[in-house]
Amino acid sequence: MGRNQRIRLGLLFGGRSGEHEVSLNSAASVISALNPDEFEITAIAITKAGKLASTSEALKMLPGHLQGRVVPYNALDARDSRMRLTSEASKTRVDSRSALDIVFPLLHGPYGEDGTIQGLLEITGLPYIGCGVLASAVGMDKDVMKRLFVQAGMPVTPFRVVCSRELGKRMRALRLAVEREWGYPVFSKPANLGSSVGVRKIHSADEFEESVRYAAQFDRKIIIEKGVDARELECAILGNDDPEVSTVGEVIPGREFYDYEAKYLDPGSRLEIPARISSRETEEVRSLAVRAFRAIDGSGLARVDFFMSRKSGSILVNEINTMPGFTPISMYSKLWAASGVPFEELVRRLVQYGLERYQERKARRISAP
Predict the structure, then answer these.
(1) What are phi and psi of 365, to 5 degrees?
(2) Which one, of 192, 181, 182, lies nearest residue 216 by Cα?
(3) Which residues pair with 340 in a beta bridge?
(4) Count of domains in the chain?
(5) Domain coverage including residue 334
(6) Is residue 163 located within the same domain as residue 148?
(7) pLDDT in tens, 244-296
(8) Which of 43, 74, 139, 224 is the most exposed place for a label (fewest CB within 10 A)?
(9) Which residues of the chain have a pLDDT value below 50?
């Protein structure tokens, strides 16, 4: 890309997940913040039904005042690929000069953040921002993620995993084991979902079965975690093999815990950046964040969430989010702004890291001579 050439950025948003609306908010935030003289944005939307949206459907997913800021989408082309994605309305061939430079998959949750769309983009030959197939899949599956963290020697919240098909015969035994080992409160959550969708805090035996079955509506695997009286800390990662790490922030929820309503709807929730912790604690969190990123073989970006025990001060890795939200109240962009990287510069660098990783993949051999 030349110095004065606009970056052709494909913004992929929407998606077939419970975080569809979160993705729409992220896309609108990115479009609002980017300079149209520097970025030519193509809106590529996925409907709630999981279909590639037509150009008119994609525009309707954006606020009216932003619809004129994006290029209508007909076909998704890569310069050096024999494959292409087209909307139902597309009948014409796209000039190669209009091919996208890179795609920003602003999709949260299943069918977007879990490696599925990343695999499609790699097959299609399109460069994209963020973690690859493996890291995205691992980052979405809290069971596999936590087992990798444990193997890497990182401290995590004690947890159990149960499959939804086993609940009928294991529910009572599971409840008794949890009560014996941890007592209450505990948390139940779907293994493969984000934004705290499906998460319940369980205060007593009376709430246990209903809460676990609620989580099972969203995924075949359910995580049961020991409740910890803790502060919630977050740290942002930017880069590929030698990632940078932001300052540490603290989430102060307006509700009992940082659930979906607290994250996106409750005005009482707030973020404190930097977190009021010691320099030693800050460096411990930042070091663990990089270790977590490398444990899943991350690339581009991620946000790592932690618990800090109010009683002992010990720090536990909660989870890693490979495509954090880009809404106006999202922690990821605010952490980098506080670390000296404003929003537009953040996107520029994400584009750079995405293209860097794409060139690495492109240069690899795929067969013996």
Answers:
(1) -80, 145
(2) 192
(3) none
(4) 3
(5) 139-154+229-355
(6) no
(7) 999 999 998 765 554 555 454 555 668 899 999 999 999 999 999 999 999 99
(8) 74
(9) 78, 82, 88-97, 258, 262, 264
